[in-house]
Write a structure and sequence with these properties.
There is one protein chain. Helix 1 packs parallel to helix 3 and helix 2 crosses helix 3. With 229 residues, this protein is of the alpha/beta class. The protein folds into two domains: 140 residues, HAD superfamily/HAD-like (Rossmann fold, 3-Layer(aba) Sandwich); 76 residues, DNA polymerase, domain 1. It is elongated, with a radius of gyration of 19 Å. It binds magnesium ion (MG). Magnesium ion binds next to loops.
Length: 229
């Protein structure tokens, strides 16, 4: 591919690990609860239901997730948290405020190389201060001509960003791990898309991709991008 393209990168679970941090906290939370009758799968199902409702009401991010953990605790124990339990919650909170990110392998080298040939942007959804903190911690901002932190990734979100940045949909690609918000929504807005799965993608983001859609490039790992762009 010789022509200069516009590449828009998702961030969480595409450039750096994110959902695995939530998974670790959920596992620790369930161990800590040591519920006398419910097994981990049952507690996960209850937590997932609480999370779904809170995402609709309050949006994405660790603050909303921690609120869900707290609600799950009071739902299961039928009492508020005591002082020692509040301290344990503070430890769970610290998992999200360490000021570090775990970059996906080869991300720095690939962005270095691609930014010499193409125009790179970053588009991430979530709480603005939390997403900005991760962008700052990643040290990757210099690779991008622009960064958009958006509340959701709907087809209209992509159309708005394309219009605001005067980008041509025909040579713009969305690159991400989420079938629903990175691939299907971008395709609906006329972009092409690169799907790079992450084993820890949040269940909320799963969706089937149309195998007959020629506008979607399927890769196994991030490093493969340099063979195609
Ligand atoms: Mg993602």
């Amino acid at each position: 591919m010789q022509d200069r393209q516009t590449l828009i990168f998702d961030a969480d679970d595409t450039l750096w690990e994110n959902n695995v941090i939530f998974e670790r906290v959920v596992a620790d939370f369930i161990d800590w609860l040591a519920h006398p009758t419910l097994d981990p799968a049952a507690i996960r199902a209850i937590l997932a239901e609480i999370e779904e409702a809170n995402v609709v009401a309050h949006g994405y991010g660790s603050t909303v997730f921690l609120r869900s953990l707290r609600e799950c605790f009071t739902h299961l124990t039928e009492r508020p948290m005591g002082a020692a339990e509040e301290m344990r919650m503070a430890e769970f909170t610290a998992a999200f405020t360490s000021g570090r990110v775990e970059l996906i392998p080869s991300v720095i080298d690939v962005l270095d190389e691609l930014s010499a040939r193409h125009d790179l942007f970053l588009m991430t959804k979530g709480a603005p201060d939390e997403q900005q903190r991760k962008i700052d911690a990643s040290g990757l901002a210099e690779h991008f001509a622009g960064v958009d932190i958006v509340p959701t990734k709907e087809p209209a979100t992509y159309r708005r960003v394309l219009a605001e940045r005067a980008l041509d949909a025909g040579r713009t690609w969305m690159i991400g791990n989420s079938p629903k918000s990175d691939i299907i929504a971008a395709r609906a807005a006329g972009l092409r898309a690169v799907f790079i799965p992450n084993a820890n993608t949040w269940a909320h983001e799963h969706a089937e991709l149309d195998p007959a859609d020629g506008g979607i490039l399927h890769l196994q790992v991030f490093g493969e991008l340099i063979k195609h762009f």
